[in-house]
Amino acid sequence: xxxxxxxxxxxxxxxxxxxxxxxxxxxxxxxxxxxxxxxxxxxxxxxxxxxxxxxxxxxxxxxxxxxxxxxxxxxxxxxxxxxxxxxxxxxxxxxxxxxxxxxxxxxxxxxxxxxxxxxxxxxxxxxxxxxxxxxxxxxxxxxxxxxxxxxxxxxx
Length: 156
Ligand SMILES: [Zn+2]
Prior knowledge:
The chain is built from four helices and three strands, in the order αααβββα. The chain has helices spanning 12-23, 25-45, 52-72, 141-148, and strands at 97-111, 114-128, 134-140. It is elongated and about 75 Å long.
């Protein structure tokens, strides 16, 4: 992308419009990727699995489907509609994953010059049902204990 042609300093909003005008669907892709990354982060912060890979694949499939369809249409169509694959939370739904189990991961700490293994975090393993992508959630042990003090070993 070259924005070197802009001589007058443009505001962020103007730059955005400029991109939409010149790059059309590309800016939609950027917008989608930004939204996807935010969603992924949101789930990671809650220690919940989210299939980023599936969401990205489904989006790319939809983009190529729309682009292919556009080529089939006779006559010039200059715009591609903004591509939407619906609510991204479906990729973080409990039903989207197989829960494979959990295990505690130790880390060695040196206490009074002695190397002591301590429980550092609880690792939860998941596999997405759609395409088998593995997802690992590492929950710091204190968070795990607080969350599951009455129901140890339960999935997130
Ligand atoms: Zn997946």
